[in-house]
């Protein structure tokens, strides 16, 4: 559609940017190049922040986490072909974690498709397994509608990834200013707000009655409840009923880990013995042992609260509540207030959970109290925990990945505020570290972000420390450096034969790698620490500076276990 009069014209690049602004997009992540550089520049000129990464994979992880943290789809912009393929990492991560995200990729010229064009790829087909919806703007007039369509689909119902494909010829097409205005207005008017299902009174009554009559009730919540911003309703439910609660790793902080009803430190007892479990915004997948015995009691009655009807149908719980976590919990709280019940601290179930938790915590504290040098995982984790706690409110956002580092960190580090923990998540994705840090810093300006990373996990996205420095983000990256995946070479030398027996082990990296110098190459601050005093001083200095920093912590290469707590799967 070419404009024929002398009126100002609007090209595809500008129309995408204007559509994004109209739809409320404030920030994009990506890597520019042919054919999307002009699109990024147009977006910036209209007030959208564009965070330029070194690789689409990290930018995609950032977009997915930004969607989770802000509740609005994170946007990833990529070039065609290989850029789109790199971006799939982020899109698939959004799909698996149920986070809202939109990937926008340029694609090759439509008339040259099938003839071996530059970066030619059938991108709509390759994104298919990872998207809720995809659209290709085959003509400039389709751009505004498609932008609104993918953004609304990504955030509605169970959130997820969506894809928009814009061929390079479409980015160069033009329409007149008045046509652009009409197209934008039409797209905005067609914006449909999908109403989420509401649970009926009868189901609310049933759920409350199950909890009321249970002998050993438990409340479990996950990152779906965090996404729903259900923290106040959840805290109210816990305090009204006195029922112990268990967060999933990213649910941590919705109700503070320090709350007296937290069952985190008595997890096995809580899930193994509860007779009714209200599970809110958390799937009964591998992270929750599929809700099956022997980890759970055979007779447990699950009440599942989830926005996704398919999820409820899949798990076949005793009672399913399809709806938004915050709204449904508000209704449950109202129902309870009308006829209150509360277990109280002397209830045998509450006492048992609390006693077990105290025992486990004191056992762990004994280990944590020791200053072990060369460092094991526990000593530096305790020092980091104390430094993070000393920050107070708003609590720093924690990013964590690695095997032992993430496992130990999950047990030791304390979450007191919602959405302050980002980790490898449902997909066990390694490589999310720097992308998540950047997303967190951009989503919550001024807030400190602390990454606690294994050296292997860090390596996947380490080049993005340049991005941290370039945007001057308040991110402190702590690398637990034990010289490899799981640490030192644990092979039996007698079993290593063949012509490559002298090669480094597949699990090994360069010993003593100077990761702290990596960030200094770009002007950031690096620290190498080997003792408790050195770590304390690096944390104090870097936390108060709120500037990009890498603290390279030397860990005994033989501390920790291969595959962390997932050894049964290796
Ligand atoms: P976790 O990893 O913390 O266990 P999951 O990612 O497995 O959490 O589960 C999150 C669940 O939350 C998903 O099944 C998703 O459909 C659901 N969910 C997402 N948004 C909402 C919401 N607003 N209200 C209720 N459930 C939600």
Automatic annotation (TrEMBL):
One of its GO terms (biological process) is fatty acid alpha-oxidation. Keywords: Lyase, Magnesium, Metal-binding, Thiamine pyrophosphate. Pfam families: TPP_enzyme_C, TPP_enzyme_M, TPP_enzyme_N. Its EC number is 4.1.2.63. Its cofactor is thiamine diphosphate; Mg(2+). The keyword Metal-binding applies. InterPro entries: DHS-like_NAD/FAD-binding_dom, HACL1-like, THDP-binding, Thiamin_PyroP_enz_cen_dom, Thiamin_PyroP_enz_TPP-bd_dom, TPP-bd_CS, TPP_enzyme_TPP-bd. It catalyses: a 2-hydroxy-3-methyl fatty acyl-CoA = a 2-methyl-branched fatty aldehyde + formyl-CoA; an (R)-2-hydroxy-long-chain-fatty acyl-CoA = a long-chain fatty aldehyde + formyl-CoA. Residues 15-125 form the Thiamine pyrophosphate enzyme N-terminal TPP-binding domain. Catalyzes a carbon-carbon cleavage reaction; cleaves a 2-hydroxy-3-methylacyl-CoA into formyl-CoA and a 2-methyl-branched fatty aldehyde. Homotetramer. Belongs to the TPP enzyme family. This is 2-hydroxyacyl-CoA lyase.
